Amino acid sequence: MKTNIVVDAKGLSCPMPIVKAKKAIDSLESGQVMELETTDKGSVKDVQSWVKATNHELLKMEEDNGVYRFIVKKSLPFRADS
């Protein structure tokens, strides 16, 4: 899967992976894709909650040798008239 940006948050603990993810996804256009890599087990729940709260789309989540990889698609901007 093609990603537009890769965020390396390995070695960081909560809330830094989410802080880095938010900053990175804010730099993307709607529909673009971010890959986030973490080593913090807590990021599994944190990322799922953050994606739900921000209306982004979690396309894939996997774990490989203690590295958690999240593929997140930036949501379309909210429009009150739609």
Q: What average pLDDT do the residues reach?
A: 93
- The total domain count is 1
Gross morphology: globular
Total beta strands? 4
CATH superfamily: TusA-like domain
The parts where pLDDT drops under 50 for at least 5 residues are: none
For the record, give the distance between the C-alpha atoms at the N and C termini, rounded to a whole number.
30 Å
Estimated radius of gyration: 12 Å
Can you tell me the CATH topology?
Translation Initiation Factor IF3
**What composes the largest sheet?**
4 strands, mixed
Order of helices and strands: EHEHEE
Classified by CATH, the class is Alpha Beta
Instruction: Give me the number of helical elements.
Output: 2
- Placed side by side, the strands forming the largest sheet appear as 1-2-4-3
Roughly how much helix do the residues carry, as a percent range?
Answer: 25-40%
Structural class: alpha+beta
The amount of beta strand, in percent, is 25-35%
Using the 3D structure, state the CATH architecture.
2-Layer Sandwich
Write up this protein.
- This protein is α+β, with helices and mostly antiparallel strands and 82 residues long.
- The chain is built from two helices and four strands.
- The protein has a four-stranded mixed β-sheet, covered by helices on one side.
- The protein is globular.
- The termini are far apart.
Features:
globular; alpha+beta; 2 helices; single chain; 28% helix; four-stranded mixed β-sheet; 82 residues
Structure summary:
By secondary structure, the protein is α+β, with helices and mostly antiparallel strands. 28% of the residues lie in helices and 32% in strands. It has 2 helices and 4 strands.
